[in-house]
């Protein structure tokens, strides 16, 4: 360091000197960027989490997020010692904890008699250094402090699976009566149904032995759809490798398919009358051949199952009633894995394999 520069820094406060010594950063290309279509357009905020949070609350991959009644946001990930991160609505991280879910993947909020609980899916798929491992997954019900209520282990223990069948659960959904639905999206692709106390009831779905139009191929996510009323509740299950959602009755009878061509969608998230989902990869026949394969955006479907907006993706276009394949249009989201829709319409997007970055906030614009 030159003498003149040393004298200059000596005259600054410690904080100011530290700021001056930081390397210059390139302008954020996403700042003030507007994404989305029609009535669902958003301003991109990639700095929702204030700088410096990673020192005490490191992450590897952001998987799923939910918001509890007091406004806090819980997010599950797969860092060895910080698997659950708890945020304030302004992006400040309040705490991080958890070391028992190395394959932390799914996170579902449930309410029982005024109390709130979380269902955590450990997929059993996790990385250590440069190695990757598969082991049996499990589903755990916890309270908001992390206290375990009970766990659901390999379905062979209740006669639902043969011992050699893989169990790598990715998501849960809770029915109005408390029944628990588990999708085995990285394992055997069945939907497993339990009662509120964890007693096994039934299984349905699967990839093999069912009509191709009804199969679950990478059953990555699940949600209970109450938009038509509690008495007409249905299940929406992701068939990610088939680029669609499948609708079933609560007892597992197939009803219909909601296609999302070009989109390897993650779990369905219902807010108001819309269905939201992260898109982990584009599988458009043209886009997939590009040198830098588009790797993520989001989609929003209306109550009829029509895509009305694709923030970060190409505009939804229907030809003869069919949606042309969507792909990434703007590089703001890397492997969109989940969305959390806030009361004001803003959307927080969790990203997988995104250079250990925190969620991106999409701030809803007035329509």
Distance between the termini: 54 Å
The CATH class is identified as Mainly Beta
CATH superfamily: TolB, C-terminal domain
Strand order, largest beta sheet: 1-2-30-29-28
Give me the number of helical elements. 2
Q: Could you name the CATH topology?
A: Neuraminidase
Query: Helices and strands: which structural class?
Result: mainly beta
The whole-angstrom Rg is 22 Å
What's the mean pLDDT score? 90
Largest sheet data: 5 strands, antiparallel
Strand content: 35-45%
Shape: globular
What ranges have pLDDT less than 50 throughout 5 or more consecutive residues?
Answer: 1-27
Number of strands: 30
The level of helicity is under 10%
Q: Based on the coordinates given, report the CATH architecture.
A: 6 Propeller
Total tally of structural domains: 1
Task: Describe, in plain words, how this protein is organized in 3D.
By secondary structure, the chain is mostly beta strands. It has one domain: Neuraminidase (6 Propeller). The chain has helices spanning 3-10, 14-21, and strands spanning 34-37, 40-45, 62-67, 73-77, 84-87, 93-97, 104-112, 115-122, 125-128, 131-134, 138-143, 148-152, 171-174, 180-183, 190-194, 200-205, 222-225, 234-239, 244-248, 254-259, 263-265, 269-271, 274-282, 297-301, 307-309, 318-319, 322-323, 336-341, 347-351, 360-364. The strands form 8 sheets. Strands 1-2-30-29-28 form a 5-stranded antiparallel β-sheet, with no helix packed on it. It is globular. The termini are far apart.
């Amino acid at each position: 360091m030159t003498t003149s520069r040393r004298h200059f820094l000596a005259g600054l406060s410690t904080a100011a000197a530290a700021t001056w010594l930081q390397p210059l950063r390139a302008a954020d290309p996403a700042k003030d960027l507007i994404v989305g279509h029609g009535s669902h357009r958003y301003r991109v905020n990639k700095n929702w989490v204030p700088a410096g949070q990673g020192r005490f609350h490191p992450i590897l991959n952001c998987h799923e997020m939910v918001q509890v009644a007091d406004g806090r946001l819980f997010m599950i990930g797969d860092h060895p010692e910080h698997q659950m991160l708890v945020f304030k609505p302004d992006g400040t991280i309040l705490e991080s904890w958890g070391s028992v879910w190395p394959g932390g993947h799914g996170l579902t909020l449930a309410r029982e008699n005024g109390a709130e609980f979380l269902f955590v899916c450990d997929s059993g798929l996790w990385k250590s250094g440069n190695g990757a491992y598969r082991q049996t997954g499990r589903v755990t019900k916890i309270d908001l402090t992390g206290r375990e209520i009970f766990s659901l282990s390999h379905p062979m223990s209740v006669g639902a699976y043969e011992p050699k069948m893989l169990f790598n659960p990715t998501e849960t959904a809770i029915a109005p009566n408390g029944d628990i639905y588990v999708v085995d999206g990285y394992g055997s692709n069945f939907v497993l149904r339990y009662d509120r106390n964890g007693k096994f009831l039934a299984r349905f779905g699967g990839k093999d032995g069912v009509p191709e139009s009804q199969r679950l191929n990478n059953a990555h996510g699940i949600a209970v759809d109450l938009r038509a009323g509690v008495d007409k509740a249905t299940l929406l299950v992701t068939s990610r490798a088939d680029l669609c959602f499948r609708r079933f009755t609560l007892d597992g009878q197939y009803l219909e398919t909601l296609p999302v061509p070009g989109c390897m969608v993650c779990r369905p998230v219902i807010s108001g009358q819309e269905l939201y989902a992260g898109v982990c990869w584009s599988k458009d026949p043209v886009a997939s051949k590009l040198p830098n394969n588009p790797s993520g955006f989001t989609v929003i479907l209306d109550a009829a199952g029509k895509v009305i907006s694709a923030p970060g993706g190409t505009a939804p276009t229907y030809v003869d009633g069919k949606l042309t394949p969507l792909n990434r249009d703007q590089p703001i989201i890397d492997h969109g894995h989940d969305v959390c829709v806030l009361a004001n319409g803003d959307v927080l997007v969790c990203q997988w394999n995104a250079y250990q970055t925190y969620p991106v906030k999409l701030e809803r614009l007035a329509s």
